[in-house]
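Chapter review: from sequence to fold.
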Amino acid sequence: QAYLYLSFTFSNHLCFCSQIDDKEFDIPQVDTPPTLESILNELEDEEEPFVLEDTCVLNTDNMDAHSCDTSSLASSDSGDPVHLKRKRRTVDLNPTVHGSVLRHSLLKGISAQIVSAATMSGVIAVGTSHGLALVFDTNQALRLCLGSKATGAEFGAVSALSINHDCSRLLCGFAKGQITMWDLANGKLLRTINDAHPPGTAILHVKFTDDPTLAVCNDSGGSVFELAFRRVMGMRSCDSRCLFSGSKGEVCSIEPLHAPQDFRDHPITHYSLLAMASLTKILVIGLKPSLKVWMTFPYSKSDPSSVPQLAWQFVPVQKTVNPVLAFSKGDTVHFLLVKKEETGTIHVIKQRQLHLSCDIISLSWINSRTLLLVDSHEKLQVVDRPSQEILETLDLEQVQLVYNSRHFKSLATGGNVSQALVGEKACYQSVSSYGGQIVYLGTKSAHIMALRNWRERIDCLLKQEHFVEALSLAWSFHEGTAKAVVGLFGDPVKRKGVVADKMVEIIFQFTEHALKKCPEQGKIQVMEQHFHDVVPVLVDYCLLLQRPDLLFNQLYSRLVENTVAKGVFLESLESYIVADRLGHLTTPIMRDLLAHYQSNGMMDSLERCIVHLDITSLDIQQVVQVCWDNQLYDAMIYVFNSGMNDYITPMESLTPSFSSWTEEEVVMGNKLLVYISCCLAGRAYPLGDIPEDLVVQVKNQVYEFLIRLHSADSSDEEEVFPYIRTLLHFDTREFLNVLAMTFEDFKNDKQALEYQQRIVDILLQVMVDNPDFTPSQVGGLFTFLARQLAKPDNTLFVNRKLFDQVLEFLCCPDDDSRHTERQQVLLELLHVGGVVQFNEERLLALAEKAKFYQICEFLYEKKHLHDKIIDCYLRDPLRKGEIFSYIHNLLSMPGYSPEEKQTVKEKELVNLDPSKLADLVVFHFTEEVQQIISEFQITQKYHHNEATAYLLEKKGDIQGAFDVLLEVTTKHPRNNLVTVLIMKLMSCFSVLKELTMKVLNCMSSFISLPAIIQQILQDPVYGKGKLAEIQGLILGMLDTFTYEQTLLETTTSLLNHDLHWSLAHLRAAVTRGLHPRQDYCNICLQQYKRRQDSAEEIIVFSCGHLYHVQCLQQKDCGWGVAPELQQRWSCYKCSSSKGGRGGTSSEQKRGRSTSLAQVCNSPHALIYIHPSPLSILSELSHSNEKTGLLITAQPGSENFQLKLSPPPLFEE
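The token string follows.
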């Protein structure tokens, strides 16, 4: 059976050797000397065939010739052959953005019977189950075979190995507890240590520290010992010191801090730190200069079967390098930063935790940023510590990882260890790391894991033809965002240069591969999809590398050979051009682009490309012709503006005649408005800004264009100012909005202000008194003017007579057309400040004449004439229903005077909506409601009988209200009032029935249920009817009976329980023994034992006083006519101190405190007078009185009445 314990470093990759000669070493001989290859292929009993594949064959889709990749891991415990039976799993290698991070190499030259191994620079030491230690070099050539068969028989299997940092010494720990030290230079045995730890325990760990004379070991008893090696007068010795006793909690893992060569002078190394892990906590101790515990860290709750893991690593943190201890137990990895303070103390800082969803059985650092974790399912996970991202997951099933739980059980020494220490998943000695490489030992082979350098990771993806993933990974190297990077320069400039060259190489490979793999036959869609998966990637990375020359020369010259590839390439450029990642095209590509987009009808895409391209890359004549032919107006404007600095020609070309209002003309008009707005605001169309030196020039040119008297190709029939006239006809409001925004932008420009005044004059000249424009258009003009004139810095001048002329036009009473439109235009004009341009009296008169009630409301509101506003609502048929809301808001305003309210009350609104009016009155005139109720003239006048009946009912005249409704019913037999009346009566009957039910239910508490039911059935109403009519009544009474029966039973049970509880505690109190305070009578002051031979009786009271019976009789402290034993006694001393000796009547009247007495007939016999149950109940009923007198009575001789009270509180 195989186990592994190792410790190693390699400066180069391990090569493979085919076999070694076993004869020259002391290895057990067989008839035919086996080779290592034959041992590797040897089958165990009842084991499935296990075939080790060569690394160049394993997973050929994802391997190179010297390494292999796996994606998973399963293992076996050498002590349980059942675990050796394994099923092959399907290997699923899906490269992520990180690619293949680990290089997995198989050490084929290592023997199958190895048990443990230790590795250092250039050396691999392997322990076997026969007690041998085999030392290999980096070529897997066997250099030394340490030990013999006799040693193996005496010491057992090698259970732990350790090599010091200069590879001169090897420590071997054995299953039976011995430790040996070997010289690796000549294979000489230097020491055999038998007494370093208690006998009968196996060595679990033995490890050198950085001091070659100091080592530590851990046995299966859970104890840790320090081994100090001495050499005096040529004699080698070893001193052992116990660092931690297993009796305080078994330690199952130890890890000394080893400093790399570059950090041997680090201040922390002077303390020789050692981390120890028990099943409950982690300890960090310093062995030098004196033994000291620096940190104790308890675990959180985890699976008891989880094995703790420890691993040290020097990590750069905040420009300093300090050791970090990673430890885990269960599914959480903790990180502790250890640093030395200036005071000389060790400070431990807890870092961020790493949480996984699996149980960790192995933890190793492979560099300062990357960890390798193995979980209980034997999955190897590569984790980037700063980001806590899992970079890769491998399956170790084929490794068949060795577990060394048999040594934890100490089977070689009888298994006399704590069962808590047994780790079923312990594989400490099967994993060893050094110098960025980790060796995993399996039952038949050894495997080495190392990080691939950046080129290997890329090449691994390329061999699988995963070009997209390879480019993505290479770009992460280029930008410095990749994880677990090996082999790149630290200088960013050099790094980017090297990676860029590699990416160019990949791009060429990808291009050739795409052209080669293109399907030669089939549907054109399949070929297009093929290149759509390739070409955009090539374009993207060429632009990321800022290599357009590579894109347009080498790549395009190759892609143009394939017509489909050429088309996909040209179409893929659009997204990069629109995103402004590509601004310049070469002349051949621009020519091909125009031809391809035009031939395929992709004119919108072509226009988007043109407006984003550098104008110098365009053939202006060709582009302009294409734009005119295909109505690409945005592109045409861009070419004229950017290519020729001509901003007027596009306006002349785009200004439509609007003769037929076609869709094309509407598009042209909208673009023209936006274009004019951009030019006047200093912005380029459709993107960017106009050059600063051209802003003023362009603005003046646009103004000159707008105010032209005639167009260039004008005819005799053309009206003046054709451009302004055309834009006003197209969309008056939007054109005026464009002008308004322009007027805002150029307030301090004198020339611009002159142009603005000129434009306003032209607008008035064109639109006023022109029947071609609607009232809405004219109103829009004057609204625009009113806004401009209302500004505090206004410089425009408009003749006021024009406003009067517009007012008369809008308020013309003879024109009923567009009444609402004209009113809204005028109202908008007033709202923006136009009211200052009019005479308000004249305006009000014109508005009333034109029935512009909203205009009237606006003017009345300014004068606070609210009653007039109400009249406007009443006269306006469109808003008559809104009057109640207006009045409600009006009356809700604070500060509204009673006089103003009176004007509202005088309005007659009953005919509009009586219900809303009533709500309004009740809400705002509550104090006057009664007065209103008394006045029925209004409702009677208008014959509102329902309102009259309602008012009479509120007044209290129910009969009058009924008469009014009855009169209506008489006149109209089919009136709905009959139905309403019936419903009211039925509701009254239902209320009466419910009231009857309540009365009968209450009667059932005092009258028997049969008597009530008999009385109901004798009633003539129910006697002649059906039982269903009184079913609900009877069921309700039965429910009441059931409830009261349950209540009675529950109450009786509670009373019985309380009575039993009280009697039990009272009985315990009266049967308690009495202890006298002294041994003499408190009357005669003589001891009660003065006459030993007499049968003199004594009485002891609960107060502790003792008396002779004769003495109490002499003092008249006894009373009652019953026999002597039934007499009632009172304590003489207590009675005297309370003001009297107490007779029978006085004691009963005052209720004085008495004592419960016990009578003794002799000094040696005490007789207890047991009270009757009746007297106990009587005393319980008087529990609020303090009485200590024993009351004796005959049962039934008293008038007994039990008064229940809460039971007294007794302390248990």
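Two observations follow directly from the output. The first helix runs from residue 36 to 40. The chain has a mean pLDDT of 75.
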